[in-house]
Design a protein that fits this description.
Layout: H1 6-22, H2 28-43, H3 48-67, H4 72-104, H5 119-134, H6 144-152, H7 165-174, H8 179-211, H9 220-251, H10 269-275, H11 278-289, H12 299-317, H13 321-340, H14 348-371, H15 375-385, H16 404-416, H17 432-455
C-alpha cells in the first residue's frame, strides 16, 4: 500500500488514526501492530511469513545472547548470518548466479524470486537490535509483540528511515501523544505527499522521457538537464517518503530521526553523505565502519574501511554492478577528498560557490548509477554530459522535453532543496495569522496533491525496489 494512494489516504489512515485514539492506552501498541500487519499484507501477503520469521529469529537470538557468556558470539553470528541469509536469497542470489554463469560459462538456473517490499530496511532494523543487545547498549525485549511493533511499524516499514532500536526503545512504552505532535505530523505528512506527487512525479516524467532514448539520440544539454531532473526526482521521491514517515510517526507519538538535511547544498561528497539518507549512513557507521576499526588503524586502513563501507552501501541499494560501482565511486571520492584536503572557509564566498558546484556535479554523477540499468549506459551518459560522444538521430531539441509546467516545477524544486523555508513548520502557534496562512497553504498543497493522484497513473516510490 502506497502512502500516495487513495486507499491509504482516505481509507486505511483515517481508520487507523480513529481506532488508535479510541483504544485505551494499554492496547494502542497492539492496535498499531495489527494495523502495520494489515498495511504490509495489503500488497505482500505471501511475504508476511518472512517478516514474522525475522521477528522471531531476532527475538530468540537476542534472548540467547543476553543469557549466555560462553556462546554469546556464536549466537550473535548465527542471528546475523540468518538475517543476511534471507536478504541474500531474495535480493542477491540471482545476481550471483548470473555472474557465475558469465564467469564460468555455466548454465545455472535463474530462480524465480520476487523481492519482498521493505526487506532491506526491516532486516537492518532487526540487525541493529540484536547487535545492540550483544554490546549491552540495550536490554533484550522480552515482549515479542513489542519487538514486532518495532520491526514492522508501518510508517517506516517499507522505505525507512532505518530506526535503530536504542533510539525508539523508550518510545514503545512511554511515548506521549499530544495535539502539538499530531498537528506537526499532519503538516509534515502533507509536505511529503506534495514532494512526491507534485515535484517528484513531474520531474521524473521528464527524466523518463529522456532516458528512454539511446544516449546518442539527445544532446549534451539534454543529458545534463535530464540528469538534474532525475537527481531532483530521487531526492523528492525519497525525502518525501521520509517526511510522510516522520509525520505519521509523530501522529502516533513517535519521534523518528531526520533522514535528509538539504544534501544539495553540500560542499563535498563527504558532507553530502552526512546529509543524504542519514539513517542508512549512520547505520553503516555504527555497525560496520566502527567495528572495522574506523579511523583508528592509520590513514590507509581508514581509507580501506571507507571503500568497504561504500561498496556495501552501493550493494545494499541493489543487485547490479551499477549499484556496486556507485558505492565504490562515492567511496573513492571521499578518499580523494581526504587525501587532497578540501578548501576551508577562508577561501570566501567564491570558494564556497565553487565547492558546491563541485559537490553537486560529483553527487549527480553518483546518482546516475541509480538510474542506469547497465554500466555501459552510465558510462555513455557521463561521456555525453562531458560532450565526448558523437550524437546521432537527434530528433527533438531540449525544449521538447521541458514544457512550462516542468520548468516551473524544476525551479520550485531547486528553490525548495535549500534551507530557505526550513523553519516554516516550526512557527510558534501563538502567531495566529502566520499559522493560518501556513495551514491554508498546506490545504492548497493537499488539494493539488489529490488532483495529481486522481489524474496520474500508478507511480511507486523509487526506494521500494531497494
Amino acid at each position: 500500500m502506497l502512502f500516495s494512494s487513495a486507499t491509504f489516504l482516505f481509507m486505511f489512515l483515517p481508520a487507523v488514526i480513529l481506532g488508535y485514539y479510541v483504544c485505551p492506552h494499554k492496547f494502542r501498541n497492539i492496535f498499531l501492530l495489527i494495523g502495520s500487519i494489515v498495511f504490509y499484507a495489503w500488497g505482500e501477503p505471501k511475504y508476511l511469513l518472512v517478516m514474522f520469521i525475522t521477528i522471531l529469529l531476532n527475538y530468540i537470538g537476542a534472548l540467547l545472547i543476553a543469557r549466555s557468556t560462553e556462546y554469546k558470539k556464536l549466537y550473535l553470528a548465527a542471528t546475523v548470518i540468518s538475517n543476511l541469509g534471507f536478504l541474500f536469497y531474495f535480493k542477491y542470489l540471482n545476481f550471483v548466479i548470473e555472474n557465475l554463469n558469465l564467469l564460468f560459462n555455466s548454465h545455472l538456473a535463474i530462480a524465480e524470486i520476487i523481492l519482498p517490499l521493505g526487506i532491506s530496511f526491516y532486516t537492518f532494523q532487526a540487525l541493529s537490535y540484536t547487535i545492540d543487545v550483544y554490546y549491552q547498549h540495550v536490554q533484550p525485549q522480552r515482549n515479542l509483540l513489542k519487538l514486532a511493533l518495532y520491526i514492522c511499524l508501518f510508517p517506516q516499514l517499507i522505505a525507512g528511515p532505518i530506526v535503530k532500536y536504542h533510539d525508539i526503545e523508550d518510545q514503545i512504552d512511554h511515548r506521549q501523544e499530544t495535539f502539538e505532535s499530531f498537528y506537526y505530523g499532519l503538516r509534515r505528512f502533507i509536505i511529503g505527499l506534495a514532494k512526491k506527487l507534485i515535484i517528484a512525479n513531474t520531474v521524473g516524467a521528464v527524466a523518463d522521457k529522456i532516458f528512454a532514448l539511446p544516449v546518442a539520440e539527445y544532446d549534451t544539454l539534454t543529458a545534463w538537464l535530464g540528469s538534474i531532473a532525475y537527481g531532483l526526482q530521487l531526492y523528492y521521491d525519497f525525502s518525501g517518503y521520509s517526511d510522510m514517515a516522520i509525520g505519521l510517526g509523530a501522529m502516533f507519538g513517535f519521534k523518528f530521526m531526520e533522514n535528509f538535511n538539504y544534501p544539495f547544498i553540500s560542499k563535498s561528497v563527504s558532507e553530502y553523505w552526512r546529509r543524504w539518507h542519514i539513517s542508512l549512513g549512520t547505520w553503516f557507521k555504527d555497525y560496520l565502519y566502527i567495528p572495522l576499526g574506523g579511523n583508528r588503524g592509520g590513514t590507509w586502513h581508514k581509507y580501506l574501511n571507507i571503500m568497504i563501507v561504500f561498496a556495501c552501501v552501493g550493494t545494499w541499494h541493489g543487485a547490479t554492478w551499477a549499484f556496486v560501482f556507485s558505492g565504490l565511486y562515492n567511496g573513492a571520492m571521499i578518499v580523494f577528498e581526504n587525501i587532497i584536503g578540501m578548501p576551508k572557509a577562508q577561501y570566501g564566498i567564491i570558494g564556497k560557490i565553487l565547492q558546491r558546484i563541485y559537490a553537486f556535479i560529483a553527487m549527480l554523477i553518483g546518482l546516475i548509477f541509480f538510474r542506469s540499468e547497465t554500466l555501459s549506459y552510465t558510462g555513455n551518459l557521463i561521456l555525453n554530459m562531458m560532450g565526448l560522444i558523437e550524437h546521432q538521430n537527434i530528433i527533438y531539441k531540449t525544449s521538447y522535453y521541458f514544457d512550462a509546467t516542468a520548468i516551473t516545477v524544476m525551479c520550485v524544486a531547486i528553490l525548495c532543496a535549500t534551507p530557505l523555508f526550513k523553519n516554516i513548520l516550526n512557527v510558534d502557534r501563538k502567531h495566529t495569522a502566520v499559522n493560518t496562512m501556513i495551514n491554508l497553504w498546506l490545504l492548497v498543497l493537499f488539494g493539488i496533491s489529490c488532483i495529481e493522484l486522481a489524474a496520474n497513473t500508478y507511480n511507486p516510490f523509487i526506494y521500494f525496489r531497494f
